[in-house]
């Protein structure tokens, strides 16, 4: 048990870097920034897998050793407990006066009647009546066996919790996705459907539980000072046979009230705004796109982002890279202006506006490298391959006209919701084991293990009753219980002689 406690402490200590340091499973860019900011120290932590704590070899080794230690600790204890549970209470000690709790009396009642009265009073105790020489009879009683039961229940539940948690990390997964609240759909069909995905060690993303979600609308209510009051997402979902019949079922998704379907849970993580732009090219063709922008200030929902367009009817790769368009800047749901400087003073969309810069040229999207959705590739600007063509503040319905006749119009603004899909088939087992741990802990702390012996000896003056008690735990309280019990056991009517305690 000492080894198990040490390993449990090491496991808790090993989990600290996972809470204090950025983790790759959650945010790769933060890990890269942390390493670049801390030089050799950051690289050393990377080699020691401190940015991948829960999938590191050393954390898995501690976890495995803890399970082995618990099994090795609990197995012999279980056999000992089974052996003790079938044994009778121990023989009455020869000298009860040496017990921590002791009392005697003499009564004018037959030995058998005293024993029978004691048996009735000790109903609920595990007891056995034995006979000694010269007509002496003894009663051995013991109570509190459930204390050890609670102790074992706690530790076996802890072992079950550790195993269930480990299995959940192997076969579970979680993913995050942003869905625009204009009837857009998300289907749990594979890795490419997510913006970020955290698979378990045995998950390759090809056999996810199938279901689809359609986000029809989002409503956020705020207090006068701008503090969020409630979030409600109007969505529809389908899973199982509904996918075959194309049946959609409504659901009001709220914070901390996830949608449970197809064995998965869908949580509402956050929300933001997605401005819609329409670009009219010189040949008259138009392209409209709505892309979520990242909230930079959660108090006012001032957001930053980039919306990109490819020119129409262009198959030549060289010409395509020369005429791509990027609209980047800030979006304010409740815009206020200080000259040309725009900001937002409220998170609700009372006066939506954008402060945008329009670039034309090569966005660098075809380089084969990953790009940030919310920013342009600054290296393209530095090389002169992406050139700023205009900069302006726009309200709804306003537009910019570039030198070549291209028009950029700020059409509408939608809200988007950030959803997290979590799959953990062991969550019910984790809950059950956690409850059993609590029940076992309460039982092991509240129940007292105690023993009581009674020796009934016939004599010329009557029947001598001698009572002794011993607490098997260090908890206080048995003295009061023994005093109450002994007073009843020693007082058997009719009473004769003096009581000596």
UniProtKB/TrEMBL annotation:
Cellular localization per UniProt: Membrane
Pfam families: ResB
InterPro entries: Cyt_c_bgen_Ccs1/CcsB/ResB, ResB-like_domain
Signal peptide: none
GO biological process per UniProt: cytochrome complex assembly
GO cellular component, one term: membrane
Keywords, ordered alphabetically: Cytochrome c-type biogenesis, Membrane, Transmembrane, Transmembrane helix
Keyword Repeat annotated: no
Protein name, per record: Cytochrome c biogenesis protein
């Amino acid at each position: 048990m000492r080894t198990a406690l040490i390993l449990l402490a090491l496991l808790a200590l090993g989990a600290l870097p996972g809470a204090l340091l950025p983790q790759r499973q959650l945010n790769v860019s933060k890990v890269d920034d942390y390493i670049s900011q801390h030089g050799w120290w950051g690289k050393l932590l990377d080699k020691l897998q401190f940015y991948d704590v829960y999938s590191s070899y050393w954390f898995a080794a501690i976890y495995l050793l803890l399970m082995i230690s618990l099994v090795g600790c609990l197995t012999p204890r279980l056999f000992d407990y089974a052996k003790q549970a079938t044994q009778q209470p121990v023989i009455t000690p020869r000298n009860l006066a040496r017990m921590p709790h002791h009392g005697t009396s003499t009564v004018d009642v037959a030995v058998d009647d005293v024993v029978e009265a004691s048996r009735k009073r000790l109903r609920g105790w595990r007891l056995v009546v034995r006979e000694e020489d010269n007509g002496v009879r003894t009663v051995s009683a013991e109570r509190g066996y459930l204390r050890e039961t609670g102790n074992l229940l706690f530790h076996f539940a802890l072992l079950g919790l550790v195993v269930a948690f480990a299995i959940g990390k192997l076969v579970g997964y979680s993913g995050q996705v942003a869905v625009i609240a204009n009837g857009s759909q998300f289907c749990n069909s594979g890795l490419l459907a997510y913006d970020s995905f955290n698979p378990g060690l045995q998950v390759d993303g090809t056999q996810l539980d199938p279901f689809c979600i359609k986000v029809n609308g989002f409503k956020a209510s705020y207090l006068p000072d701008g503090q969020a009051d409630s979030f409600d997402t109007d969505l529809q979902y389908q899973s199982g046979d509904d996918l075959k019949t194309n049946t959609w079922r409504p659901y009001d998704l709220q914070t901390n009230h996830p949608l449970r379907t197809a064995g998965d849970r869908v949580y509402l993580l956050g929300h933001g705004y997605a401005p819609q732009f329409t670009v009219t090219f010189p040949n008259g063709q138009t392209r409209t796109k709505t892309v979520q922008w990242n909230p930079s200030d959660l108090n006012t929902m001032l957001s930053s982002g980039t919306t990109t367009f490819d020119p129409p009817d262009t198959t030549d790769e060289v010409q395509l890279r020369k005429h791509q368009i990027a609209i980047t800047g800030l979006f304010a749901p409740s815009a206020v202006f200080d000259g040309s400087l725009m900001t937002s003073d409220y998170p609700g969309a009372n006066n939506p506006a954008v402060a945008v810069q329009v670039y034309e040229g090569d966005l660098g999207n075809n380089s084969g490298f990953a790009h940030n959705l919310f920013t342009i590739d600054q290296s393209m600007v530095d090389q002169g391959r992406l050139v700023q063509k205009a900069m302006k503040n726009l309200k709804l319905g306003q537009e910019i006209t570039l030198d070549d006749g291209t028009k950029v119009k700020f059409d509408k603004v939608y809200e988007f919701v950030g959803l997290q899909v979590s799959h953990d088939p062991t969550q019910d087992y984790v809950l059950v084991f956690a409850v059993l741990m609590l029940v076992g802990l309460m039982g092991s702390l509240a129940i007292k293990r105690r023993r009581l012996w009674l020796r009934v000896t016939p004599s010329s003056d009557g029947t001598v009753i001698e009572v002794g008690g011993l607490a098997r735990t260090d908890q206080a309280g048995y003295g009061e219980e023994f005093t109450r019990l002994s007073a009843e056991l020693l007082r058997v009517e009719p009473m004769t002689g003096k009581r000596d305690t």
